[in-house]
Write a structure and sequence with these properties.
Strand content: 15-25%
CATH superfamily: Phosphatidylinositol (PI) phosphodiesterase
Order of helices and strands: EHEEEEHEHEHEHEHEHEH
Largest sheet: 8 strands, parallel, barrel
Shape: globular
Number of domains: 1
CATH architecture: Alpha-Beta Barrel
Structural class: alpha/beta
CATH topology: TIM Barrel
Number of strands: 11
Helix content: 25-40%
Number of helices: 8
Strand order of the largest sheet: 1-2-6-7-8-9-10-11
């Protein structure tokens, strides 16, 4: 059965990527939650999507100076015990990003934390940066890793992910067709699609049989998954 992942938590009522959104997602009964991890100036791992808050980069800000609603990764993982967590490492050469770590230090710090907190087995790491995905695999042979894509041809990306020994491809949902799923199955890779919100699009991904749907509408998606499994 396709799993439902709440994109940045259940954030229709709560601010996304906050403890409230994470608690609400768990209460809904989702299979997983997707969140974004960044590193502050003083090396604290925090959960936030955008690189800046009020035009000030998180990478240039000490953790104690961030708004109270920004949780640490430690706090987030504690709130999400019992579900799978897709941890997106925000490491990119995008010009909108203030820093890019090519050394692998950021990756190692995230993985060391997850192992130290004894939650690594419930995590899937993802990143748009393929080098970062490869660093995860090199550092930890057992960590589940998915390459995030939105402007790359999906079937060729599946081959690249397979060659690197990754576990999944996380494509934007419009890139996925039944042929993509067949190719993923041949290569032993999961497809975790994002961000699927409209009923028709959710139904289409369920029909294709993707592993997981990442959505801003987790309650709606859960109802559609339940209806499909019950033959409604």
């Amino acid at each position: 059965m396709t799993g439902v992942f709440a994109h940045r938590g259940a954030h229709l009522k709560e601010r996304d990527n906050t403890l409230g959104a994470f608690h609400d997602a768990v209460a809904l009964g989702v299979a997983g939650v997707e969140l974004d991890v960044r590193r502050t100036l003083d090396g604290v791992l925090v959960v936030h999507h955008d690189p800046s808050i009020d035009s000030v980069a998180l990478a240039h800000t000490r953790a104690k100076d961030l708004p109270d609603y920004v949780p640490t990764l430690d706090e987030a993982m504690d709130a999400l015990r019992g579900v799978t967590v897709n941890v997106e490492i925000k490491n990119s050469k995008d010009p909108n990003e203030p820093v890019y770590d090519e050394s692998g230090t950021f990756v190692r710090e995230v993985l060391d934390f997850l192992h130290g907190a004894e939650v690594a087995s419930s995590v899937i790491i993802s990143c748009f940066d393929l080098t970062t995905c490869a660093q995860v695999r090199d550092y930890d042979i057992d960590m589940r890793v998915g390459w995030l894509i939105w402007d790359v041809e999906a079937e060729s990306a599946l081959v690249e992910a397979h060659v690197l020994g990754l576990d999944a491809l996380n494509p934007y949902f419009t890139l996925v067709t039944p042929a993509t799923q067949r190719k993923a199955s041949e290569l032993g890779l999961e497809l975790n699609v994002w961000t699927v919100n409209a009923d028709d699009d959710i139904e289409a991904m369920l029909a294709i049989g993707v592993a997981n749907i990442i959505t801003d509408q987790p309650a709606r998606a859960l109802n559609l998954v339940t209806g499909r499994s019950a033959g409604i």
